[in-house]
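Thread: "does anyone have the structure for this chain?"

Original post by V.I.:
We have the sequence but no experimental structure in hand. Need at least a predicted one for the grant figures.
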Amino acid sequence: MIFVAIAGVLNIGLDALFIGPFDLGAAGAALATVLSEAGSVLLAFLAIRKRTDLLPSLTRKDLVLQGSASRRILSIGIPVALQDGLIQVSFLVITAIADSRGVDIAAAVGIVEKIISFLFLVPSAMLSTISALSSGYIGAGKRQKSKKCLWYGIRICVIYGALIFLISQVLGRGAVSLFVPGNRSVITYGTQYLRTYSLDTLFAGVQFCFSGYFCARGKSLYAFLHNVLSIALVRIPAAFLASVLFPDNLAPMGLAAPMGSLLSILICTLLYRHLTGQDASRQ
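Reply from O.Q.:
Generated one for you, tokens below.
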């Protein structure tokens, strides 16, 4: 957290410098991001070198890949990487759909996507938390406690998501207007989009928790599967149909993401029951 905070402060400062006095424009923003991340990595490496309690020793032998360990890591990591990549592709497709509908709608979608990415910090953190805690319990042979982690995480995400959805109905217009004060068209479209899209903070939180649990069980392919199906079968097609059938209203398009997450929850529930059945048969 400390090193990420350092990168954030560096990024803001370098943005102001490169875009302002240096007048580098978008290239300056990109350069600021790269340099801030590089600075954060360098500071983290220096901290590890000095703090023996973080890493007692680090030699060249420690950097040599071991076949069995590497295969195990890649078998879990590759599906997770592909899953995240496909999610970003879906964002690009939806952005392209929005761009084709005019400048105001494109601006509204871009603003709301940024707001949603901030609101998704809690569900994303819960995914990582459940993955870390559940894997520890599974490694210690306490599988029932790992399942409790999953259900506690789901409860937290449901409560959080319900609150965010309700707050968005009341304060959604004010949140969008912070980015484009005075632009009534963008504010109206953005409010429509945010009020329906915010429902996904509830549904996505549930499927994020399942994804964390599956990764803890070494079943990251399950997380990849439900995300691919929800994106390909619901999210992108629903967003496209909404843009065609409701050209002057972004509320229907905002429902595409929650609908996709609902399909993910259904698939996750079936996969979870399958795993539970396997556990019972082994006992």
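V.I.: this helps a lot. Residues 143-177 form the longest helix (35 residues).
O.Q.: and The mean pLDDT is 91.
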